[in-house]
Amino acid sequence: MSETPIPAQKSRLRAALESDLFYTFTRSPVAVVAAFVVLLMLLASVFAPLIAPTNPFDPASLNLMNGFTAPMAANDFTGDVFLLGTDDQGRDVFSTILYGMRISLFVGVSAVLFAMVLGITLGLLSGYLGGWVETIIMRTADVQLTFPSILVAMLIFGIAKGITPVEYRDQMAIWVLILAIGLSDWVQFARVVRGATLVEKNKEYVEAARLIGRGSGAIMLRHILPNVLSPVLVIATISLALAIIAEATLSFLGVGAPPTQPSLGTLIRIGQGFLFSGEWWILLFPATTLLALALSVNLLGDWLRDALNPRLR
């Protein structure tokens, strides 16, 4: 008798392309456009040194005579033309946006990853262990929720910057900013993971893991964690947009990215000072870029939330 041939296992790429999630993605024009915008901005920021006409933060490449050049207009003194114009220091606005996006995206992604790791860890511990561990973590979360996250971030940023030696403040400013935003955003991850853990820890597969001698750490990481990640991914996507806006807010207020590494928020703060003097492009283009980035990430988060909701399938 001839043996029945065993079908070849599908590749991960093919399985992903045939999944329900990808199908719903291709049927949502808003999600496709939002993903395209986010991907385009991500690639533009990563390859900014190759795309940008100049390095706007290299003093040797600046020419003050090019200051306040309007978009697509020849400078009166040098005759140079810039796509989006220049700022007060003669920096190409298009180049500053590309380099500023790098800082904004790096801070946003790093802060969300930090908040996600911290929140998942504390949520798993509080949901699985319970008792005094849960009481301490959840009461701390409740207290933090009584304050606006931006105020918590400003407080943490001020304390961290205050204990940093003066000579290292500019070098550590970005990392302090990531720490501040991450510590202000872990609560929602912890609360969602705790609630899901309370449900999962009483299921049969967890009881079976206990019976075969699995430790608490292994059960949380290898059994419970994979089953609570779906809502975490949705929160992470939406939190990314909030983290980018939080970074821009802090930088706009002058307590974020240093002048040597300006982000989109810093560029908006600089442009705001020239808005009423007629140099509108210095503010408009960075603000539009920030708006498009935050809106696209938010739309992706909304789509992912609906796609992973079993009630809407």
Automatic annotation (TrEMBL):
It is found in: Cell membrane. The keyword Cell division does not apply. One of its GO terms (biological process) is transmembrane transport. One of its GO terms (cellular component) is plasma membrane. Residues 101-301 form the ABC transmembrane type-1 domain. The chain crosses the membrane at residues 30-52, 103-129, 141-160, 172-193, 224-246, 280-304. It is a multi-pass membrane protein. SUPFAM superfamilies: MetI-like. Keywords: Cell membrane, Membrane, Transmembrane, Transmembrane helix, Transport. PANTHER family: ABC TRANSPORTER PERMEASE PROTEIN (PTHR43386:SF26), OLIGOPEPTIDE TRANSPORT SYSTEM PERMEASE PROTEIN APPC (PTHR43386). Belongs to the binding-protein-dependent transport system permease family. This is Glutathione transport system permease protein GsiD. The lineage of its organism: Bacteria, Pseudomonadati, Pseudomonadota, Alphaproteobacteria, Rhodobacterales. The gene is gsiD_5.
